[in-house]
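User: Run a structure prediction on this.
Assistant: Running it now.
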Amino acid sequence: MNRAINAGLLYFIAVFAIGFALGTLRVLVVIPRIGELPAVLLELPVMLALAWPICGALIRRCAVPSCVAPRLAMGAVAFAVLMMAELAMAVWLFGRTPQQHWASYRGVAEQLGLAGQLVFALFPVLRRRH
């Protein structure tokens, strides 16, 4: 199970770094030009397309077994740490309360982003044959 946990942490770090860069670009450049929802619709497939090979590489590098439990653990760790990181950024960088952060998920763009994050968390299981 340690392999899955380590892989989940590395998966989070890699995808979070890419997401932070793309998210900054989305907020500063894309949203002012086309709006929030279209910007998320553009960013989401790019993020998932980048997360898929990262997931596969980490599964191989960390030798995560192909059974469901370790793959679920890998995705769950990555997702849980991602949610904590997003909450921490909302509170410390943007001055929101935790309640304000969780309430932000009521918007359509935020729900799409959350759906994408859930897909990201399921990639290790979906890659069971790879």
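The radius of gyration is 15 Å.
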